[in-house]
Amino acid sequence: MADPDDCDQPLAPGKPLRGDPMFSRRVLSALVLAPVSIGLVIWGGSAFSIFIAAFSAAMAWEWVRMSDPKAPPRAFAIATSTAVGGVLLASQLELLGAAVWILGGALAAYADRRPRGRGYEALFGVAYVALAASVLGALRHEDTAGLAGVVFLISVVWAADTFAYLAGSWLGGWKLLPAASPNKTWAGLVAGLAFGVIAGALAAWWAGWDPRHGAILAAPTALMAVAGDLLMSLAKRRFGVKDAGTVIPGHGGVLDRVDALMMAALFAGLWSWIGPGGWPGGSA
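-> C-alpha cells emitted (284 positions)
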C-alpha cells in the first residue's frame, strides 16, 4: 500500500488528506517499473533471479541505512550478501541451502550490530528481506507455482496496494493505525481487500483455475499485503525516517515500493508448504 503520508502536503489537525501532490510522480514511476517487472516475471529463468537478487540487495542496504546510522561497511556487506545468496539459492530450488545461508547471515548481522545496540533489529531486518525475496524467487521456478502463481500473487498485491492507497488518499476517513501511518484509513483497507479479491478471481480465471478459489485465497493474501505495508511504516517511524530510500521518484526507496509484496510473498511461501492444495499455479 503506497503510503500517502510520504508526501509533503501539510495536514490540518483533524482533517483527512485529500489527494496526493506526489501522485503524478508515482504514476510515472509505475509506468516505467511495471513493464520491466512484468516482462522479467514472464521471462523467468536467470534474468528474473538476477532481477530479484538486485532488488533484495537494495532492500537490505536500505534496511541497514535506516536502522543503523553508525553501521560500518561490513554491516552492508553482510546484509546484501545474505539477501543475494538466499535468492540465488532459492531460485535453484536449493531451499535448505537458502535457509541455512539466510540463518547464518542473519546471525552474523546480529553479531555485528550487537556492540552498537539493538542487534535484534539487524537480525530481523536481514532475515525478513532475504526470506521474502527468496520465496518470490523460488515460487517462480517451482513447478507447483511457476509463472501463473507469481502472476496471481502480484496481481492481488498490486490491486490491494493501489486501491488502498487511492481510497486512503482521496476518501480519507477513520484512521487504521495512527501509530504506523496517520493517513492509512479503514476505507483504504476495505478497498484494498475488495479489489485484491477481484484481482485474485480474475487472475484465477485467466490461469484456468476456479475463480472462487482464487477469490478465497486472495482475501488473506491482500490482508498480508496491508500488514506488510503497516509493518514497514512502523519500522520507519521507529527509526525516525520518512522513506527507506530515494531511488524511486514518488515512492522513496525499494522497501517503500515492495513492502506489501514482502509480507504477501512470505504468506504465499507458507501456504505453498502447508496450505490446503498448496499455492495455486502450474508449471510455466
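Residues 143-284 form one domain.
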